[in-house]
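ARCHIVE CARD
CATEGORY: sequence design from structure
SOURCE FIELD: tokenized fold
FIELD CONTENT:
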């Protein structure tokens, strides 16, 4: 989030998951991407953060598909993609 903030993005971290429910949520919100980033002059993007070997759950795959089909910028970021993360957040 510090890097996102450096480049002018605002972010929201989702804390609602199948194993860790905080607050009120709907069952179909399981699998929502970890982070939603917004930069008014650039747009909105959704990112799931995974380890190098981490896999998307079936609920996460479904949300990624739905968001992608709706035209959203949705992806998974892994530690080895740090330069991609920086380049993405630094885009005009």
């Amino acid at each position: 989030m510090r890097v996102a903030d450096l480049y002018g993005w605002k972010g929201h971290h989702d804390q609602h998951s199948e194993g860790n429910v905080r607050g009120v949520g709907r069952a179909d919100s399981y699998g929502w991407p970890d982070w939603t980033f917004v930069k008014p002059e650039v747009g909105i993007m959704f990112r799931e953060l995974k380890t190098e070997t981490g896999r998307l759950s079936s609920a996460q795959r479904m949300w990624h598909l739905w968001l992608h089909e709706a035209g959203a910028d949705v992806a998974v970021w892994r530690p080895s993609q740090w330069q991609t993360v920086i380049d993405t957040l630094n885009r005009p």
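CARD ANNOTATION: Residues 2-89 form a domain with the Trna Endonuclease; Chain: A, domain 1 fold (CATH 3.40.1350.10). The radius of gyration is 13 Å.
SHELF: design records, drawer C
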